[in-house]
Specification:
Helix content is 40%, strand content 14%. It contains seven helices and five strands.
């Protein structure tokens, strides 16, 4: 299945949105990592060029977690799909609530493409906000408590039978500098990987 083509069929007008142009067998995916927002250039996204900006921070996090990867395909081959909550590049420093809301229908349908997901990782506050908006529509309440990520890390959150892990944004260069966040994000990835290995 091509994710972009599938979402275009499901959602109609996707002209201004940046969707993942990647072929996947949805049944093989056990975990989804939701990053915050697409980069300004599609080449720098997870499924862009091999040495894209987003992969330059993602690969070190996986390696620190003890998962040997070199390309996004290696991550997919391990049953992990990465996407962005907001499908349009941000125009100012902060991601607006409106841009999160505009991307929600697409994110919701994208998540529903994968029938065997056991873990969803929310990489950063925008991902957490977007996921809570989705859960509010279906369950009338937030899936993830509105408290700091640091306090949430060791909380077992289950949403519709799926383990939710709240972590840190993985695509800003400063994640490689901020040692504590880098350590915590890689520990969270390690936890996610351990959980999905139980289902192999």
């Amino acid at each position: 299945m091509n994710i972009k083509s599938e979402l275009q069929q499901l959602c109609g007008d996707t002209q201004n949105l940046r969707l993942n142009d990647v072929n996947i067998e949805p049944e093989t995916i056990r975990a989804i990592m939701i990053n915050e927002v697409v980069p300004s250039s599609p080449e720098e996204d997870f499924y862009g060029k091999p040495d894209s900006a987003y992969m330059s921070t993602t690969i070190p996090l996986f390696r620190k977690a003890g998962i040997e990867v070199g390309l996004v395909q290696d991550i997919l081959n391990r049953g992990i799909y990465i996407t962005n909550a907001v499908k349009t590049p941000k125009s100012e420093y902060a991601v607006s609530k409106e841009s999160i809301e505009n991307s929600l229908p697409y994110l919701g349908k994208e998540l529903a493409l994968f029938p065997n997901v056991k873990v969803i990782m929310l990489m950063g506050d925008v991902a957490k906000k977007a996921f809570n908006m989705i859960s509010k529509k279906t369950t009338k309440k937030n899936a993830v408590p509105s408290i700091s990520t640091y306090k949430l890390r060791n909380t077992e959150i289950i949403y519709k039978g799926i383990r939710i892990i709240s972590s840190y944004i993985m695509t800003r260069q400063n994640i490689l500098i901020e040692k504590s966040k880098f350590e915590m994000a890689s520990e969270d990835i390690e936890t996610m990987y351990r959980l999905i290995k139980c289902f192999d």
